[in-house]
Specification:
The complex is a heterodimer. Helix content of chain A is 31%, strand content 22%. Chain A is of the alpha/beta class. Chain A has a domain of 76 residues. In chain A, the strands form 2 sheets. Chain A has an 8-stranded mixed beta sheet, with helices on both faces. In chain A, strand 4 and strand 5 form a beta hairpin. Helix content of chain B is 28%, strand content 23%. In chain B, the strands form 2 sheets. An 8-stranded mixed beta sheet of chain B has the order 6-7-8-3-9-10-12-11, with helices on both faces. Chain B has a 4-stranded antiparallel beta sheet with strand order 2-1-4-5, with helices on one face. In chain B, helix 3 runs parallel beside helix 6 and helix 4 packs across helix 6. Classes of the chains: A alpha/beta, B alpha/beta. Chains A and B meet through helix 6, helix 7 and helix 9 of A and helix 6, helix 7, helix 8, helix 9 and helix 10 of B.
Chain lengths: 337, 348
Amino acid sequence: MTPLLEVRDLVKEFPIRHSLRGTATVVHALDGVSLSIAPGEAVAVVGESGSGKTTLARCILGLTPPTGGAIVLDGVEVTRGDGRALRAFRRQVQPVFQDPYASLDPRWSVARTVREPLDAYAIGSVADREARVGTLLDLVGLTARMAPRRPHELSGGQRQRVGIAAALALEPRLIVADEPTSALDVSVQAQILNLLAGLQRELGIAILLITHNLAVVEHICDRALVMYLGRLVEEAPVPTLFADPRHPYTSALMAAIPYPDPSRRLPQTVLRGEVPSPIDPPPGCHFHTRCPVAIDICAVQRPATTQFGPAHRAACHVAAVAAQSTPSFAQVPSVPQ
Amino acid sequence: MRALLATPATGRVLDVQRLGVRFEVQDDVVSAVSNVSLTIDAGEIVGVVGESGCGKSTLAMAIMGLLGSTAHITGRVELLGRDLAGLTVEERRQVRGDRMSMIFQDPLTSLDPAFGVGDQVAETIRAHRTVTPAEARARAIGLLESVGIPAAATRYSDPPHRLSGGMRQRVVIATALANDPALLIADEPSTALDVTIQAQLLSLLRDQRDARGMAILLITHDLGVVAQLCDRVAVMYAGQLVETATVEQVFRAPRHPYTQALLAAQPSAGLARGSLRVIGGQVPDLSDPPPGCRFAPRCPLVRPECDSPPELLAAQPGHSVACWADPATHPGAAATASSTGAPRGAAA
């Protein structure tokens, strides 16, 4: 299947200037990230603070220009395109943000917020747009009574539904949702996750879900990508990732999930230390400073991506060596870096 | 304050009886906490779990005595056998940071940005103990090391912004533990942190409890954190406790329909997509709560008795529930309907 969206070797660096010392340093937010999303697929990007997952989302949304690499929608490269290409692209790819308290204009009614994308792209007549607002509110489980209300009159879950309705207004083919439920209570989070799963299933909209919460991934995504310090370390179909993680960081991340089950208590040591600074990331494999299984080469050479199964790839020297000694996993020289 | 409050032989550290907190807001009276009774023994970790606005943080602040004059507090809070309401303002100030201490969600706002992290730990010691500055410094360094700050002596004068979020929370924990409190209240201590750092913090809290034998009251919205860390759990809804139990009881056999719904709303493996349980309706307005059970308007098991408030009653040893539909505490109640029959799926 032709991918809907392809991200090729994306690099984003943010320069930082020290005004007193006059020196300039660079934050390496994204360091060669490649991924693809098929039409209607739900893909998760998982990582902790500083992994670059939000920068990745912002680059894909066209909110942050990448330093290098390409973003391709339906075979058309948008990164190098002109304003018109970007405008067409944005119609296809819509955001849902983390904080529904900050992402809605407090002075605008629900109806105006949801109608705004239709106005911006001058879609249909004014009457058409009004009617469309009603349909959209219905689609996200809000009633027409909500239309004249302002954000302060809504609960957090209702606000996030308004944000999703606005994202759906242009009938996008991909929704990029950056931590859409992390500001919400668990019972409200369940409503929003069910809603997103329903939109993907019934409208066939692809979803790129940016999250730090692996339990959420397990619930609504087909495939997951794990990021660490600006790089993809592993990608796999969600069941494979959970059953057979190959990268030690993925394993650690899964071991750190506090399951609501007292018989599955966390191991004493999940992972030592903290994520190093993206200004001066460690050489070789970025994870080697915290890795429980690191070998000498890890501190020197960036690991290539090894294929472990259908759609299952990880970038780890140790896992690659282990797979070579196990004949069931053929090492395919697929290195999209 | 050691003379004022000594650990009694029973090991009971905190005894909260029928605690109520009301706020007068213009013409409204909001009862944020009603009729909460809770005990914690030395060495025990008790979690209070609930969603936004359920009153769990207000409960913690009331126990600490940190609510302002707008709060009307009723009921009794006993720490180490002493009724805290009987203490003068100055005595309470001496108890806080010494016999009881608190850590908050956001470590950046609980530390002073202008002072070295070590000084902030030392200050807590000097506020309650007669020690020389050198002794306070040495103890502060020891505390920072014990909470896992590497090279604590060289980090001593670093301001908080030089430390990562996880390290800052470790400093806050060191400050809270500085005077070996009998009770540590932790309000969402790991919510602002990444999962691998959260895992480190949770095991640090458990280790410190094991080493010092203090009681911990953990306030959280995260059932996962409760399952990982707590010995006992109190589930709070709309200002009241609806269920108290050991952690095994509450996760294996939750009795209150709200607890059951909360557990079913938790994303976990093996569920069909889009089938997370949703609790219909809204949390009640606490300036005008329902007269009976506050969960009744959203409850799948609602019955006529629910118009009057249910008491928190023991259904089994160690397991209490406030529900008219519970067959053990209200044997007359025909518990036919199963709460799994509640509305499922999204409104989409």
